[in-house]
Structures are given as structure tokens and as C-alpha cells.
Automatic annotation (TrEMBL):
Keywords, alphabetical: Covalent protein-DNA linkage, DNA damage, DNA-binding, Hydrolase, Lyase, Protease
GO BP annotation list: protein-DNA covalent cross-linking repair; proteolysis
Alphabetical list of InterPro entries matching this protein: SRAP (IPR003738), SRAP-like (IPR036590)
Organism: Paenibacillus riograndensis
Pfam families hit by this protein: SRAP
Keyword Electron transport attributed: no
Enzyme class: hydrolase
Family to which this protein belongs: Belongs to the SOS response-associated peptidase family.
EC number of the protein: 3.4.-.-
GO molecular function, one term: single-stranded DNA binding
Protein name as annotated: Abasic site processing protein
Length: 227
């Protein structure tokens, strides 16, 4: 499961990385503890170019009766994407990227859970593969939402959790976003665990467990609890 993440780079860095010329995000601020049901930065392709905007984290299928279902769809397992009604039609038409520079997972040790932050060793921005959909309520109000795709853990993550978000390689980003690409078998091949040797994990403060906390100190490394 991927239920918390960080995106601490500037808007300029985001736009440069994804070759964005303009954005619909009016009030951008770094997220040190991004959580489900929040509006988060996301990148889609409109058929001509990449666009950066906000999607609410927790997918609400277009056919859902109410939007509460979103809290149960923050992640989508790559192995069963094509079997789930909420996701299977989105693979070919509504793919997105959730930019991040880290994510959190809780490691079971000494009878307690130690929060860990997982990043690339380079500290660079990376792209989590996602799907999005647009839901409309009875009054015609649109709600755009997303889910983060997960896969099996690599050797680094296996010691912490059995799942991890799909992190796309730099080369795969454009292939995943390209709206003209509807080759589902090829797209599914992109949903692999990222190379463990290019990642690192370190312990952070238990304060990250509270979604109300969103300060830069949350990403600081701490001494692992002895229990």
C-alpha cells in the first residue's frame, strides 16, 4: 500500500521536469505528508502536451453512485488492474503521473511500527504511475480523482512492506502519459518494481502518522526506535 508521500520540489522544478508550459494549480505548496482524500499535483497528457493540475487522491469511478468510495480506492494493484471494473477501462484512456520525491511506509520491528521514508538515492523527483477518472454529482459538479498503482516489493522494500508504488523510469514517463498510446499489453509491462539499488530507506519521526502534521521536519532522518 502507498498511503503517504512527499513532493517538496518547487513548481518551477515540476514544470521543467515534465515540460509543462502552464498549470491550473493556483496555490502550490510542498507536501511533506501527502495523504488520501487531499488534492495532489498530477500530470496528464491532453493528446498534444503534458498538463499539470490537481486530482483528489482516492479514485471515484465515473459510474459510482457517491464519492465516498474514493477513500477505499487510493491504490490499484497492478496485477489485477484489468480485472477490476473501476480500473480496467482507464488503462487505455486515463493514465496519469503523481510526481513525488519520497513516500512513507511503516516497518514492523520490536513490536511496534517505525515509519520509513523511501526515496531515490539521487534525491531526484520521480513519477508514480496512476489512473484518474472524472465523476459528476447530481448537480453536474465534476470531481477529478486518482489512484496510485502498486506492485510487489523490490529487495529494499521487502524488509519494510510487501507492496510499493510503481515508479516509472525516466524513459517510461512519456510512454505512460501518451494519450495516443492504447497498447495495454505494452503499458502493463511498465508496471514493475523499481531497481532497489537506486533507492534508499531511512527512519523518520512517528509524527508522520498524523495527517495533520505537514512540516519539513517530517522528512528528517531519526534514530530508529529500539522498541
Amino acid at each position: 500500500m502507498c498511503g503517504r508521500y512527499t513532493i517538496t520540489v518547487s513548481m518551477e522544478e515540476l514544470m521543467l521536469w515534465y515540460l509543462i508550459e502552464d498549470t491550473t494549480i493556483v496555490h502550490y505548496a510542498p507536501k511533506y505528508n501527502g495523504a488520501p482524500m487531499q488534492s495532489i499535483p498530477a500530470v496528464i497528457h491532453d493528446g498534444k502536451q503534458n498538463r499539470l493540475g490537481e486530482l483528489r487522491w482516492g479514485l471515484v469511478p465515473s459510474w459510482a453512485k457517491e464519492d465516498k468510495i474514493g477513500s477505499k480506492m487510493i491504490n490499484a494493484r497492478s496485477e489485477s488492474l484489468q480485472d477490476k471494473p473501476a480500473f480496467r477501462n482507464l488503462i487505455s484512456t486515463r493514465r496519469c503521473i503523481i510526481p513525488a520525491d519520497g513516500f512513507y511506509e511503516w516497518k514492523q520491528q520490536n513490536g511496534r511500527k517505525q515509519p520509513m521514508r523511501i526515496t531515490l538515492k539521487s534525491g531526484e523527483l520521480f513519477s508514480m504511475a496512476g489512473l484518474y477518472d472524472i465523476w459528476m454529482d447530481a448537480s453536474g459538479n465534476r470531481l477529478s480523482t486518482c489512484t496510485i498503482i502498486t506492485t510487489g516489493a523490490n529487495s529494499l522494500m521487502a524488509d519494510i512492506h510487501d507492496r510499493m508504488p510503481v515508479i516509472l523510469s525516466r524513459e517510461a514517463e512519456s510512454e505512460w502519459l501518451d494519450r495516443n498510446n492504447r497498447q495495454v499489453p505494452d503499458l502493463m509491462k511498465l508496471l514493475q518494481p523499481y531497481a532497489a539499488e537506486q533507492m534508499r530507506a531511512y527512519p523518520v519521526s512517528p509524527a508522520v502518522g498524523n495527517v495533520r502534521n505537514d512540516a519539513k521536519e517530517l522528512v528528517d532522518e531519526v534514530k530508529e526506535s529500539a522498541g
